[in-house]
Amino acid sequence: MAETITTENGTEGATAADGYAQKPVFYQVSTLNALMLGNFDGVVTVGELKRHGSWGIGTYEGLDGEAIVCDGHAYDAHADGTTCEYSDDARLAFATVANFTNRAAQFEISGATTIARVKDALDDARKASDDNDNAWVMMAMHGTFPSLRVRSCEKKLTKPYPTLSEVASSQHEHSYENESGWVIGVWVPAYLEGINLPGWHIHFLSDDKKRGGHLLELAVGTASGKLESYARFEMDLPVNREFDKLDLGEDLASATASVEG
Description:
The protein is of the alpha+beta class. The chain is built from 6 helices and 15 strands.
């Protein structure tokens, strides 16, 4: 079984007297349902995204691989298994980022043998930090990973774009052993289904920045990290003709579960 050790939180963040503007912000680009329906146009640049947060995940314009924002640098895990850093003028179709503050909780995980157990351990750390099932959470941990499996999609160059479900049937998967690196992800409340993916969504980036992707499977040797919950949320929506008429209220939960699994 996974072992999770959570230390005490840092000093408390903003109080009501400090004003709403002082609260840390969880920032999102586009919505998951828009991405599911094939709205892959770039919404913001990497430079704009990094002004909102130094840690996060997402995907680039045209569904170009898996984005990993790690300590203020934006990387792309490509479908061929390679990873590189993108410049500030690259554009993202979907992303979530935030900054950690002195409110962030520290945690450790060891001996988790499956991604399900890793997510259970992260849930334990989340609840120990802030037992709030209705707040966004950002997480980043560094450690050793005996085995992992990731996926990425190839960039789509022309419109009309396919749906994400159609793309997922040809996604590329890569397996690695004895890696060290970063696992970065978000936890989203259930009531935000369609806006984002409820539960944990996590990406991997190797220490040498050469391998990464959306995690499908993961075993943890030892890892330590931090997580923080957010009561303030900001979003930038796509500005394109296709987005204007999308049925974002469509129930895509089953299709999303198939893709994200």
